[in-house]
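hey team, just a heads up i'm posting the complex here instead of the shared drive bc the drive is being weird again. everything in one block, sequence lines first with there labels, then the predicted structure for the whole assembly after. its two chains so it's a bit long, scroll down
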Amino acid sequence: MLILEHLSCVVLQGISLVLEDAELVCLSGASGSGKTRLLRAIADLDLNSGVVQLDGTARDAIDPQAWRRQVAYLPAESRWWAPTVGEHFRDPASVPFDQLGFDKAVIDWKVERLSSGERQRLAILRLLENHPRVLLLDEPTANLDPQSTERVEALITKYIRDARAACLWVTHAIDQIERIARHQLLLDNSCLKTAVAA
Amino acid sequence: MITLSLLDLSLAALLVVALALSSLRIYPEIAGQLTIAAIRTAIQLTLIGLVLKALFASSDVLWVALLSVFMLAVAGREVMARQHWRFSGWWGYGIGALSMFISSFSVALFALIIVIGNDPWYQPQYAIPLLGMLLGNTMNGIALALDRLTSTASEQRDVIEARLMLGYSQREAIAEIRQQVFRTGLIPIINAMAAAGIVSLPGMMTGQILAGAPPVEAVKYQILIMFLISGGAGFGTLAALHFGVKRLFDERLRLRLDRLHKAG
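-- predicted structure starts here --
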């Protein structure tokens, strides 16, 4: 369970939020409303203040490396630094590439030849390798085709169920929200509002 | 040794004047910069000559220390002036100056007390030129290294943060940058040592030979200086890298580019 109390950073003031285990919450809001800022603040990538707790332990009591493995943030655009895909994974042999439609040979693929959709799917697998307790996903399916979107949704919802992880998923697609989430939050003017499911 | 008269120097200055005049048409600003630099060289070197003359006469450890600190302070300013991205506040000055202090001063002390073993060890005729050569070279290494560190960290912000997001350590997050920075700091002295004697005759050795010292003695001093400089520049770069990286990240392992500002 992830608890935020009065979280503030550059553009956001006093955000409070509770994410229960095995719960997937969708977050929407106009562009520039601070969705990315919020996720970055929770992952402790930007300066922020307020109380953040994971399973009853304060964030400050957890080493920052361990924190980011447990509270995993997926940016809207993934970054790759080595020539091949496999070099970006700690243990490429044990990654379930097939679940997002890749075969094992993907390990040796050149990163520069990946499409943006392939990058995105691989970034999700890379993130899950840390077995996080909380997922903070910034428009994870924005540049995916419908089939890949479905696969990603299935993989994430299964992970959340099995690992009893919490998830905050930024998306604008109403049909997606209906498929994956019971709760939807709207970020507006530094306020989190519960949106009524349409 | 043949002493140079004012006329001799004026003749050499004609060369600079001629160059300034010919560059007027191509790039007038460079002509101005060249003239100012030449005038600065004449004034600064004359002054240091007078200072050294007075210093050699007194041989007071206090004056040696004072001049050393002054040289360090100026070198620190020079390192800061060469950064495109500077650490804000005192850090911009402090990281370079502290790194130079640690490396140049300790290497100079090591050379004076243990290697050369003069009595007294602070005899200005040895201490000041040695420190000057060390500071000049470590200054170059540290300035290049710090500039490389801050500019690559700014350029590769996304990659560094992408690794931090995945729970990588600070060391893992900037592994290649560290290597590049260290290489940048050491390349000048590596090149100088590799070319010494074949492509270039180093200045200090040439000076001693001109002053009438036996070539083999001059060569021994030059080798000593080269080794001291590589130690000074190398450890200075390591120190600058250590303090710089420390300042780029905070205790929660966030990349703090807000601690930098663009110069100029």
